[in-house]
Amino acid sequence: MTRPRILLVDDEPNLRKVLGALLEQDGYEVHAEEAAAPALARVKASPSDTFDAVITDLRMPGMDGIGLLRELAALDPHLPVIVLTAHGTVDSAVQAVKLGAFDYLEKPFDRAHIRTVLERAVATRARTGPSMGSAATAAADPSVAVGMVGSSPAMQRIREIIRTAAASPSTVLITGESGTGKELVARALHLGSERAAGPFIRLNCAAIPAGLVESELFGHEKGAFTGAVSSRPGRFELADGGTLFLDEISEVPLEIQVKLLRAIQESEFERVGGVKTIRVDLRIIAATNRDLLEVIAQKRFREDLYYRLNVVPIRLPPLRERIEDLPELLDHFVQRCNERLGKNVRGFDDEALARLRAYAWPGNIRELENLVERMVLFASSETITAAELPDVFHGGAGTEDRPIADEPQEGGLPQVRVPLSSLGMDLKEAVRLGSRMVEEVLIREALRKTDGNVTRSARLLGISRRSLQSKMKELGLRDDPELRGGRS
Ligand SMILES: Nc1ncnc2c1ncn2[C@@H]1O[C@H](COP(=O)(O)OP(=O)(O)OP(=O)(O)O)[C@@H](O)[C@H]1O
Ligand SMILES: [Mg+2]
Predict the structure, then answer these.
(1) Residue 65 lies in a domain
(2) 16 is in which domain, residue-wise?
(3) What number is the average pLDDT over the span 178-203?
């Protein structure tokens, strides 16, 4: 399968490297140029459907991004050009969009936003491009395009369902435990659909106070309720022409469910406090990690809504039911972390792999992803050994469905939240930065929080005691008087 091709133009080598790596992880083929002139030469010399999108910096020596945009528009008017802009200089990017740029990306980059913009760009290219080039082929396997890994029979079936369901306008209900990839499937369905060039709008129904769900869904008119100081469109309106992803659908309050049912059935609704009926054209995808039949039995979910949503059911199996995908997933996440952190970890040794295989993974792929991030961040050699794995993988605890943590959180290993007050970030963000300074701050905070107790700190950080000790040695923290405490 051909991957969509992106031409990336920026004079800064670091940016080319980082953004290039992000894009390649997302399944794009990236060609980088350091200036507008060679980029232009490249486009001129290539067949007209070679590139699916161009990403260019605005400020560059020689011809700038606007100049490049103009030249490209003359060469190939349908080639989407996305401009890069530094935080705080959005004005010039907006200017570029007015001049015909497809969209802009603001630095520092937001991964989800990059994905959305590129998916739209590539899909637009597939529709309007000079020929049905590489993008059309990419759209043939949307689950690959969104970066879904795994070739177990269960995953192959899911990929097949996605391919078929993407093409149809039917409502899809995705079920599966937390972290099994429900959102990823929703994105794949959108990307593979004829609405791919339209918006993908997500609403997490569990994250909104019950009283605001209706207005989030359908919008409101000015003065509709206290606090409604201006009128606002809801997610249904925003998703017009695209896909509306209703995440954690079981959490929609019962009294709103009947309105939701009508909106889905009739494709029309009114804003809260509004009289005008608004019509939209969109595709609904819903997801839940609850057993909806049980919620129906508890009289907290309408049966008619359930049947209306469950036209195409997709059930994502938990990781433990397709554990044969583990090596492939580990490889994928290790490579990704290596690129991000500039590390060179090759993988896990046999014993570590055996322990990971025996584990129940209550937090599924997300838990695995988090674990790999921590392991790679703290790795001191090329191969990660069983001894470096956190406690939960040792002894008989391995197959138990019980997360071991100081502050247990829903689903498996503790989602590490050592509050890095000084940096205002948690481990996940810290991993993205990948600096030793961050590692050190993180470890210091954990030690301080536990009065210097290495065992408990390791647990808080989600790594083994041995890894923590060797990290502390490496960073010269072992004899730091400031951190002296219990030291168990
Ligand atoms: N098959 C897969 N290959 C690669 N990465 C995956 C796969 N499935 C899930 N992931 C990754 O795992 C993480 C969790 O996936 P996602 O958010 O889609 O799960 P979810 O089912 O929506 O979870 P939750 O119920 O907690 O919201 C994401 O970072 C996603 O990219
Ligand atoms: Mg989710």
Answers:
(1) yes
(2) 5-138
(3) 92
